[in-house]
Predict the structure.
Amino acid sequence: MQSRLISAGVKAALAAALLFGAATPLAKLILANVSPWMLAGLLYLGSGIGLMLYRAISRAEKVNLPREEWRWLGGAIIFGGVIAPVLLMTGLTAMPASGTSLLLNAEGVFTALLAWFVFKENFDRRIAFGMLAIVLGAIVLSWPTASGFSAAWPSLAILGACLAWAIDNNLTRKVSLNDASWVASVKGLASGATNLVLALLLGASIPSPTLVLSAMVLGFLAYGVSLALFVVALRHLGTARTGAYFSIAPFFGALLALALGEPLTAPLVIAGLLMALGIWLHLSEQHQHSHIHEELEHEHEHVHDEHHQHAHDFPVATGVAHRHMHRHSRIEHTHAHFPDSHHQHSH
């Protein structure tokens, strides 16, 4: 069972990373003709509309979010859908796309720190060393070559976006058992509409239809589909580990930026090596020990496995995913695991 969950979570995280990684250098091209705030609105609006159409075409089931979870989703929308993209686009206007892509690794660091020390996810020495390597890489990459705040502010804006997305990731973790496409579509529609209105109020003009379509298609893939996959990964891997796997995104973005003609610099190489070391330490982690599952009742999509042994009033075939409210009995066992929805125990 665990190998199936890990496989699903890792594949979702890596696919999300590849899609999101492509967004930075491609958004850099669009920014030449679109204001940062307007582009942030179009990207998220594209993700929300695209996922809404997908749900309508696929006839996805209606989602009723529990009342207590709306505050988590609302906070995620504000930090991840409004504050973060504006800071990213603002910093991107004055910084190379390749450097911005690698600096976005800081999101994984901030995500993990919040998950560990605020939301109490477990971590060990290997994970801590991995994060330290990523932090050192971010410092090398963001160190200004000229004196004064004007040289540092683009990096600070990018780091601010990373912090906002880290808060978003930890809040989204609280609603990750709900339909991932629905969570991502709601975040996209709310964030896109908010940013679009703010951009127009600040005097931004609506770009040409070609640029609008390009931005919305990019947003659907790099923000919408990527976010839905990220939510799936959160469900299976926990917040900090998902952030670590997702750290491959900036490397993909940096490589794409280089392919588009940006120069290869020494700081970029050094930062890339340090961040690669940190990511490898995370990806090669093994976490296994005897642990106790306390009694729990909740609702999410699942199959019958060692964590889901319950009866039904209707027949359910082995291995078939289904969704309903169910109760977990207290159980103690040993296997490799991540801090997913069923492994929130202390160490």
Q: What stands out?
A: The chain has 13 helices and four strands.
